[in-house]
Design goal:
Blueprint: H1 2-13, E1 16-17, H2 18-27, H3 37-49, E2 53-55, E3 68-71, H4 73-84, H5 95-106, H6 111-136, H7 144-176
Antiparallel strand pairs: 1-3, 2-3
Length: 191
């Protein structure tokens, strides 16, 4: 149920067309809540049918012209209700962790290289988040909306920092394995 709320949030920040929303998801919201172009358009149709948003009147009606949407009072109320509601954290699911567990019984062939690749990807994402932080949150930009948006970005920075540190640790463990490719070798234990 969160994609509709992500769209309501984005539209309250700035009325937008589906294409503009897709671009904004790619540049900001998508870092923590991704959606495809098709998912966004499908949700816009549902939100409009539910009376939570409306298409803004077009200055020049033309076939195929993009529609911009805005949030209606019912949409703002729904977003406020959802924001105030209690939600439990979701269990963390990560395929790399499952692959490491499987490696304990079938061997680690190819896994170290992928750990290094993941480490590089997380390091690049961390650099991107730090660049956004420097650009969008200079000293003195500390209004309530800015502080909450910065808090979301800090979560991304902290998560990427965690993953880069954890992957460094995982790679150091790999270096200590006697024969990383064969789970039957001594030193590779079942968990």
């Amino acid at each position: 149920m969160s994609l509709p709320h992500a769209i309501l949030t984005a539209l309250l920040e700035k009325p937008s067309s589906g294409l503009e929303l897709t671009r904004r998801f790619d540049k900001s919201i998508g870092y923590f809540w991704s959606a495809t172009h098709q998912q966004i358009y499908r949700e816009l149709g549902k939100l409009e049918a539910e009376g939570l948003i409306r298409a803004l009147p077009s200055e020049q009606p033309a076939r195929g012209q993009k529609k911009a949407y805005e949030v209606l009072p019912a949409g703002r109320e729904e977003l406020a209700r959802w924001t105030a509601a209690s939600q439990d954290p979701k269990p963390h699911r990560d395929v790399m962790l499952l692959r490491l567990r499987a490696a304990a019984v079938v061997g680690t062939e190819g896994l170290e290289a992928d750990l290094r690749r993941h480490r590089d990807l997380h390091e690049r994402q961390l650099a991107k988040y730090r660049e956004i932080e420097q650009r969008d949150f200079p000293p003195g930009k500390d209004g309530p909306e800015d502080r909450l948006r910065h808090l979301v970005l800090r979560a991304g920075i902290d998560l990427e920092t965690f993953w880069t540190q954890w992957l460094d640790h995982a790679l150091s463990e790999f270096a200590r394995l006697p024969d990383a490719g064969d789970p039957r070798q001594p030193g590779v234990r079942e968990a």
